[in-house]
Amino acid sequence: MSEGRSAIGNRKSEIGHVTVEAVAWVTQFVGGDGTRRKLFQEAVAPGATVRSVLQQVSDRFPKLDEALWQRPGGALAEHIEVLVNDAVLGIGHDLDSPVQPGDRITLIGQYTGG
Amino acid sequence: MLRDTIIKPLAIGVKEPEGDRHLPGGYAGRILRVDLTSGRIWSNPWSPEEMRTYLGGAALGAKILWNEVPAEVGWDHPENRLILATGPLAGLPVWGTGGLSVVTRGAMTNGATSTQANGFFGACLKYSGYDAIVIQGEASRWVYLYIHDEMVEIQDASHLMGKDTWETQDVLHAHHGLSGHQMSVYSIGPAGENLVRFAAIAGDYGHVASKNGCGAVMGKKRLKAVAIVRGTKALRAADPRGLFQAADEIAHDLKTNPTAKSLYEYGTLWGVLTLHGQGALPIKNYTTNLPPEGADMSVWEAPSLRKGFDHRGHQCNACGMHHCHMQVIPTGPHRGELVDEPEYEGWAGAGWAIGCTDPVAVSWLNTQVDRACVDVNEFGWLVGWVMECQEKGYLTPGQVGLTLRWGDAESAAKLLHLINYRQGFGNLLAEGVKRAAETVGGPAAACAIYTGKGASPRGHDHRARWEEMLDTATSSTGTLETGPPVHPTEFGLPARISPFDPDAVARNVGKFLGRRHFEDSLGACIFTTRTLMENICRALSAATGWAYTKEEGMLLGRRTAALLRAFDLRSGLGPELERPSPRYGSVPVDGPAKGQSVEPHWERMLDVWYAMVGYDRKTGRPRPETLKVLGLEDLIPALWETESRQRQG
Questions:
Q1: CB crowding B37-51: b at 16 or more within 10 Å, else e
Q2: Which residue range forms the structural domain that includes residue B74?
Q3: Which of A66, A112, A114 sits opposite B259 (nearest CB)?
Q4: Closest chain B residue to the Cα of A29, Cα to Cα
Q5: What's the mean pLDDT when you consider all of chain B?
Q6: Based on the domain organization, do B611 and B523 belong to the same domain?
Q7: Please, which residues have CB within 8 angstroms of residue B556's CB and are 6 or more apart in sequence?
Q8: Does A62 touch chain B (CB under 8 A)?
Q9: What are phi and psi of B325, to 5 degrees?
Q10: Count of domains in chain B?
């Protein structure tokens, strides 16, 4: 497990951190070997959303950017499942839901096999 | 010893000369016919026009099933057909092209079945000069079918009785002096011999056509095995260079696409961890979505699972995926035994669904299930149901003949034996969990996982995958009919949707109906067709010489779905059965999908799905205008005119 910490431009507006967790297969998109987890503490400002936090991380990792987002359009692509606080996106949050300090966003590889 | 025994064939057939008929590339051109009642063996040519309309595999099987198995012919009737069909890509140098589709009226639903397996059967069949085998009748004694090029023989199988599917293949390899990939054998084990309703047909050590009791159909015909020597017939691609290019593009896509790459490297091994993260790993018969306290889920990462065993690749025909493997049990009472690396559904059905979280125990149990020829999905729902019922006091150890506790693989294997031989309580369990639960009744009935039609859900917790629940409940194949969308943007659908948005879920399932049927008509594996439809169609075009488009592929798939639906409706399986059982459609009490209830949305999802697929919501029938688009005008009288006449009368 490794950890990273991001900074945002205007630290005065920072309200706290959201944890972004890449799990197993997805870690290969953020510099890992495809196993275990990699955690990132993402600084967030007021108005931050699930989308903006994910964008913040994917801006730093081109492979994640390619796998996570649909281009063009900016919707989530089909490859990675996103959970917020252990709940699948679509229950308590969607992509444009605001996040709170202490929230955890988890990225899990999509699975379509039998 | 067996090689010294000369067994006189009970019947022999010789293939008629092909003549100079011009065939599309990729086709052998003939359909082998076997009547086990009379011992007659013959073959029929089929035309290039029929090939273009029905391709092979699932589509060809659906057409034959509709034409030849009327409503009064139940799954156990001698006139039921057991169709083993491959497709135009089988045997060609495209990854995963040993494919076989089994189409029949199945024992679980008494409706249509389309279920697939891989290995080498499809390639061997094509090299022997056939695109499909259609088996009818019922032998007076146990037999096996032996095919070696022109010669097709019905052989006595008395020496194979009681043997499991691996032992059967071992004995037939030894008897015929062949080994490895020289001869493909698909057979039934004791569960099929004893007509266990969820018996499968298994072959080539670890490949299983598992759905809807196709193994029970084979058992009822007293057909123990079909053994095909890798034939010597040439198989021509219309454009060999184009085929190589298309095959390379498919391989490149599988190796680089972020989702497909995990399949390329590890097959379905990532399933446990990823589905757990999504709330879609079925744990202890849907009673929870959380692993045991303190469980180290990292052992379920694909590399860890594979590292835990001495393993070797066990690839199918022409396949470059690192998917199928054989492995050795490293520890415990079965140390040293050779097993097949479980697919995800094995880890689920022989593992998590019954509370067993020891990879070694699951791996061993999964192979016992395969060797017995039992569908591991139904096995998981059945054993999980018994375990839960014992825990809650709805079933006693005295009733069952065993004490079964969550996670106890050894006791589960003992229960498997009772089921295989229909001994004691195993006789009731051999009917499947729906019938067993309905017979036991009371609170036990509410714990069982099944669909209204009687099919077994796949080994996911569909309460977190509503698409698959809707798909399974409406299916006319005895299993998932559409499957999760592959590259949905290729068809103008969003790349992803909320799994709990009823309209989006139903639109996705409806829009994608047909793709899986198309894949299952090619003679190829669904994991190697996990690429753009355009890529598949490019390979199909190069193989056959046709200019085949993805639109034509989807039309083919929808034609197949409509035929299977018409067959089910004619068999009395109507839309009133398109519901999950109470437990299957229940609300997850914990985990990532906690609190999500499909029930309030079910009717709405059906409304949307029916509108998308062009079927009548009330009767379930494909609408006449839908049938016309699909080129199935000839079904309109059978489906619609009786009612029209009744109204007029």
A1: eebebebeebebeeb
A2: 2-229
A3: A112
A4: B258
A5: 95
A6: yes
A7: B53, B54, B55, B59, B514, B517, B518, B521
A8: no
A9: -140, 155
A10: 3
Q: Tens of pLDDT along A55-79?
A: 999 999 999 999 999 988 889 998 9
Helix (H) or strand (E) segment spanning residue B265: helix B260-266
B244 part of a folded domain: no
Q: Same domain, yes or no, for B160 and B97?
A: yes
Q: Are residues B47 and B147 in the same domain?
A: yes
Residue B535 belongs to some domain of the structure = no
* Residue A21 three-state SS: strand
Nearest to B191 by CA among B156, B216, B211: B216
| pLDDT of res. A111 | 80
* Secondary structure element (H or E) that encloses residue B556, with its range: helix B550-570
> Which residue's entry shows tokens 């985990």?
B591
| Minimum distance, in Å, between the CA of residue A42 and any CA atom of chain B | 21
Mean pLDDT confidence for B562-590:
97
Q: Cα–Cα distance between B401 and B631 in angstroms, integer?
A: 54
- CATH code of residue B28: 3.60.9.10
Q: Do B409 and B480 lie in a common domain?
A: no
Select the residue of A80, A111, A114 nearest B458 (Cβ to Cβ): A114
- List strand residue ranges (DSSP E) for B160-295, in order: 183-187, 201-203, 207-209, 223-229
Cβ–Cβ of B258/A75 closer than 8 Å? no
- DSSP character at residue A42: E
pLDDT band at A1 (very low <50, low <70, confident <90, very high): very low
Tell me the shortest Cα–Cα distance from B256 to chain A, in angstroms: 11
- CA–CA separation, B218 and B207 (whole Å): 16
Chain A residues near residue B302 by CB distance under 8 angstroms: 24-25
Cβ(B497)–Cβ(B508) below 8 Å: yes
Distance from CA of A76 to the nearest CA of B (A): 7
Count residue pairs from A and B with Cβ separation < 8 A. 115
Q: How many Cβ atoms sit within 10 Å of the Cβ of residue B346?
A: 28
Tokens in use for B38? 């009379």
Domain spans in chain A, listed from the N-terminal domain onward = 2-109
Q: Quick one: B208 and B131 in the same domain?
A: yes
Residue B459 lies in a domain: no
CATH number of A2-109: 3.10.20.30
Residue B314 CA to residue B632 CA, distance in Å, equals 41
CA atoms within 13 A on the CB side of B389: 27
Indicate if B431 and B298 belong to the same structural domain.
yes
pLDDT tens digits, B425-462 = 999 999 999 999 999 999 999 999 999 999 899 999 99
The answer to whether the beta carbons of residues B154 and B10 sit under 8 Å apart is yes
User: Which residues lie closer than 8 Å to B228 by C-beta, 6 or more apart?
Assistant: B121, B124, B125, B128, B147, B148, B183, B184, B185
The dihedral built from the CA positions of residue B320, B326, B328 and B333, taken in this order, carries a sign that is: positive
Contact residues on chain B for A75, CB-CB shorter than 8 A: 494-496
